[in-house]
TrEMBL record, chains A, B:
SUPFAM superfamilies registered for this protein in UniProt: Dihydrofolate reductase-like
Gene3D superfamilies associated with the record: Dihydrofolate Reductase, subunit A
Organism per entry: Terrabacter aeriphilus
Domain Bacterial bifunctional deaminase-reductase C-terminal: 6-183
Superkingdom assignment: Bacteria
Name of this chain's protein: Dihydrofolate reductase family protein
Pfam families per record: RibD_C (PF01872)
Length: 210, 210
């Protein structure tokens, strides 16, 4: 059975997955790059980077993935919907290399980029979006790419099979929280924690099969 | 120099240090005993318990401590101030064995219990309370014992030298949060994380001396 997976999703110790305000100049607001510095230091990101536990987790990002689902605020800064020339943050060759389904209340025609990435803009419930992505993934897994609002919605709907979180030891104080409204969600998962020498903690939630 | 320390302070993955509502029957509300099960399983709590990393951390609780400061809601359930016979949750021989300063807006006369514990009820700012506790501690360290409101106030006032947190992989969803209003507080500390085989993660914040 294909799985629905989340990878390299980084949160602060106080549970924020982005700072504020989100803008063209600062996609993560006052968080800057602090939530992903652990990843920039790995081989996954930089050939001269580290090859330890952070890298092992980071590399899972693309393995066996056939489509991604992302939220509107991950695709662009506030107001991107009014800019017909906006094609995402990632330039000509986005790092997805699969169909990507962008959830938005203001859909537009699909956008084909280099390297196998096509953005489809859809207004759909989480389970409808997952069906569309699973069909496009053709037997491979679907990644839910964020941001926190979309991850939270998919967790609340019980649609996630595997969640890899990276807890960074900073206190952002404000931004968008991952955990709101998810009381008891851990009961459906086996949870494992690993502290990395880099200072982050990797948490994996694997859906129970019993 | 004596230090101000916090030990065995347990929070859920979403940052709650207690559930709700707090009551005589359920001091931690809907959290029940889930935040401290890791501790009940150690030798610190139970002679037949484990003696690994959880126990090593737990045992630091009393080492070199000469006084404790706690909040009113740790001392008793809502309304304890109206009950003259309330002497705390801990019976005749509380586990503190030092003077304990209970912060409350409704002070009452001091209460001497067995085993060296005396409860002093004071209305004071965090730094005033710390001065009183340091004097009583006679050169030893002062422990800030919780709850989350008091821990947060002491962190915000920059009065904490050592903070040991235990992150339990459950999502409480509601209760009293530890982290509100503490943006950037980690900048004054070296932060270390250790995952325990029991499933919890120990986080230590040690005040930077530079
Ligand atoms: N920490 C990490 O690892 C990580 C990972 C990915 C992204 N991020 C960051 O997270 C931030 C974005 O997260 P976010 O929580 O603000 O937003 P988001 O989850 O990216 O997007 C939420 C938006 O998507 C649209 N949407 C969601 N569900 C929909 C549905 N069922 N139907 C139609 N539209 C739907 C809505 O936008 P409209 O109403 O405008 O259409 C909604 O406001 C960015 O800063 C990004 O960089 C962080
Ligand atoms: N997770 C853990 O490891 C841990 C550790 C300890 C306790 N707890 C739990 O935490 C809960 C209590 O925490 P909480 O955040 O609700 O309350 P708390 O921190 O124990 O107490 C807060 C109360 O103390 C009094 N207070 C605080 N500062 C004061 C000051 N400067 N001057 C005078 N009074 C002051 C006020 O009460 P009044 O206005 O009523 O006087 C205030 O409402 C309990 O459920 C307890 O079991 C958890």
């Amino acid at each position: 059975m294909p799985r629905t997976r989340i990878h390299n999703f980084s949160i602060s110790l106080d549970g924020f997955a982005t700072g504020e305000p989100q803008s063209l100049e600062a996609p993560f607001g006052h968080a800057g790059q602090r939530l992903h510095q652990w990843m920039f230091a790995t081989r996954f990101w930089d050939p001269s980077g580290s090859a330890g536990v952070d890298d092992a987790f980071a590399q899972q990002f693309a393995v066996g993935i056939g489509a991604e689902i992302m939220g509107s605020n991950k695709f662009g800064p506030p107001g991107w919907q009014d800019d017909e020339s906006w094609t995402g943050w990632w330039g000509e060759d986005p790092p997805f290399h699969t169909p990507v389904f962008v959830l938005t209340h203001r859909p537009r025609p699909a956008l084909t980029m280099g390297g196998g990435t096509t953005f489809h803009f859809i207004e759909a419930s989480p389970s409808e979006a997952l069906s569309a992505a699973q069909e496009a993934a053709d037997g491979l897994d679907v990644r839910v790419g964020g941001g926190p609002t979309v991850v939270r919605d998919f967790l609340a709907a019980g649609l996630v099979d595997h969640l890899h979180l990276v807890q960074v030891p900073i206190l952002l104080g404000r931004g968008v929280r991952l955990w709101d409204g998810l009381e008891g969600v851990e009961e459906s998962f086996d949870v494992e924690s690993v502290a990395s020498p880099s200072g982050v903690v990797h948490l994996t939630f694997t859906r129970r099969t019993d």
